[in-house]
Write a structure and sequence with these properties.
With 88 residues, this protein is an all-alpha fold. It contains three helices and no strands.
Length: 88
């Protein structure tokens, strides 16, 4: 009886999480292929392979820094929410 009540309450959340997991799995398949920057770096490619490597490295560095920044901001928001709730 109690199990069916809990399943009724948590059923939509579990369904949503399963849907999100399925979508993330399909996105990972697309991300595995990677992004071919050669299509976008045509003018840089005319200058040589060294410049293409430099620009790709800069783009990758900016991506990593932005991911770390977003993760740090999310963790800071979590800590503020945790401090805001006294009973936690």
């Amino acid at each position: 009886m109690l199990k069916s009540i809990i399943d009724t309450i948590l059923g939509p959340a579990i369904t949503f999480l399963q849907y999100a997991l399925d979508k993330l799995s399909s996105a990972a398949l697309v991300a595995d292929r990677g992004l071919n920057l050669d299509y976008f770096l045509g003018p840089v490619a005319a200058m040589g392979d060294g410049w293409v490597t430099l620009v790709k490295s800069l783009i990758a560095s900016l991506l990593i820094v932005s991911v770390v920044f977003v993760a740090k901001a999310a963790y800071g928001a979590y800590l503020q929410a945790k401090d805001g709730v006294k009973w936690w």
